[in-house]
Design a protein that fits this description.
This protein has 2 domains: 202 residues, UDP-n-acetylglucosamine1-carboxyvinyl-transferase, Chain (Alpha-beta prism); 206 residues, Enolpyruvate transferase domain (UDP-n-acetylglucosamine1-carboxyvinyl-transferase, Chain). Helix content is 30%, strand content 25%. The strands form 6 sheets. It has a 4-stranded mixed β-sheet. Strands 2-15-17-16 form a 4-stranded mixed β-sheet, with helices on one face. The N and C termini lie close together (5 Å). The relative contact order is 0.15. The protein binds uridine-diphosphate-N-acetylglucosamine.
């Protein structure tokens, strides 16, 4: 397995560009199943998770091509309705084919996603939404088997704000007969960009940007071309890297309006920010100030930046508290950060971070996608050499992260196994 060797304490400066958003592309790839014919997605990075979704769409009978940032998906020929265990176990977002398959073919069999390194992750809200739309659901032999002669508009109340369940329900409701009303829908930018794609395909979804959505079912959707939004989590990771540095760094090709809460926290930590239309320049503080963070559904602080922000706080002058209300167990990386001589203590599900003046390089292991990014940031500011093993997690969600960070002065080498 590949490893990163990171020489720490380097001077960072210059600019770093953000790629298209993995979590916005995964659902629109699944949405392409709804419109027979060839859809084209632009600004698509080269990521393992996107390859896994492409593989799944091919298994269902679609044709998928990828060339330098452009992905075309032809779903005219889909004929299978099963998402097999070996793909769903690699990537939970495979559950996104459930809604489109039900809507297009009237039946779907999707392997039941298991837990993962960030804790138990149920799919009950996805299933309840499909049932509300008229599907019958059986869990058999580790598979979700869902079928419906026809889907019918319904009222769907989400007990919890869920990005995945909102998007899956939308993809089923757009072809249902009649009107669907959704309440407590998720408002993440990835939900909005899926709504944009579906509406471009001919769907009639109103309420974008709010927790109440109304969907007038239509009979058919047609293929489209769309440019994918920038990845707010990659952008946030680079902004935090910049905050850990000693000189200004500009993060380009991003959308600052998707990062409002992070920008507020970076300012509170002492950073100076120059925010332009699609770029943000961070001037790091001389002393990092402690800032508490509570992760919440959008527009709250994203759980996917929790670990990276904790790295920043591990070097603050004082104590800060970090709590994750979305995935309360998402702190496995803390033990690894403490190997780098951070001083973080878990009190139930809250990280109590006592800032230290310097981290110290060591061997550590990545255990999930965002935790890996956090360890890379920590290695970049630590004294000496940090070796991160199991970095395949990072390739799931960051396109050439070492090349990009080396472009602003980091020294990260990929050692191939
Ligand atoms: C998506 C993102 C992930 C991010 C998360 C929260 C993708 C591919 N992944 O994951 O990176 O960390 O949003 O912003 O876009 N829940 C239930 N029942 C369900 C579904 C969810 O109880 O059926 C709970 C989850 O356990 C969690 C909360 O709802 O506590 C939010 O999860 P959700 O928004 O669904 O996350 P994902 O869509 O899986």
């Amino acid at each position: 397995m590949d490893r990163f060797i990171i020489e720490g304490n380097r001077h960072l400066s210059g600019s770093i560009a953000v790629s298209g958003a993995k979590n916005a592309i995964l659902p629109v790839m699944a949405a392409c199943l709804l419109a027979p014919g060839k859809s084209v997605l632009r600004n698509v990075p080269n990521l393992i998770d996107l390859k896994t979704m492409a593989h799944l769409l091919r298994v269902l009978g679609a044709h998928v091509d990828y060339d330098r940032g452009m992905m075309s998906i032809d779903s005219a020929t889909i004929c299978y309705n099963e998402a097999p265990y070996e793909l769903v176990s690699q990537m939970r977002a495979s559950i996104y084919v459930l809604g489109p398959l039900l809507a297009r073919l009237g039946e779907a069999r999707v392997s039941f996603p298991g837990g993962c390194a960030i804790g138990t992750r149920p799919v009950d809200l996805h299933l309840k939404a499909m049932e509300a739309l008229g599907a019958t659901i059986n869990i058999e032999h580790g598979y979700i088997h869902a079928w419906a002669e026809k889907l019918t508009g319904a009222e769907i109340y989400f007990a919890k704000s869920s990005v995945g369940a909102t998007i899956n329900a939308l993809m089923a409701a757009v072809l249902a007969e009649g009107t669907t009303h959704m309440f407590n829908a998720a408002m993440e930018p990835e939900v909005d960009s899926t709504i944009d794609m579906l509406n471009k395909m001919g769907a009639r979804i109103a309420g974008k940007g709010s927790t109440s959505l109304t969907i007038e079912g239509v009979e058919n959707l047609f293929p489209v071309e769309m440019r994918m939004i920038p990845d707010r989590i990659e952008a946030g990771t680079f902004l935090i890297a910049a905050a850990l540095g000693t000189a200004p760094v500009t993060v380009t090709d991003c959308l600052p309006e998707h990062l409002a809460i992070l920008l507020e926290k970076l300012r509170a930590a002492g950073c100076q920010l120059d925010v332009q239309d699609t770029a943000i320049t961070v001037t790091p503080p001389r002393k990092i100030l402690p800032v508490d963070v509570l992760t919440l559904p959008y527009p709250g602080f994203p759980t996917d930046l929790q670990a990276q922000f904790t790295v920043l706080m591990s070097l603050a002058e004082g104590v800060s508290f970090v709590e994750d209300t979305i995935f309360p167990d998402r702190f496995l990386y803390v033990a690894e950060l403490n190997r780098l001589q951070a001083n973080i203590r878990m009190e139930r599900n809250v990280a109590c971070v006592k800032g230290v003046s310097q981290l110290s390089g060591a061997e550590v292991m990545a255990n999930d996608l965002r935790a890996s990014a956090a360890l890379v940031l920590a290695g970049m500011v630590a004294e000496g050499t940090t070796v991160i093993s199991r970095i395949y997690h990072i390739d799931r969600g960051y396109d050439r992260i070492e090349e990009k960070l080396n472009g602003i002065g980091a020294r990260i080498t990929r050692e191939r196994a």
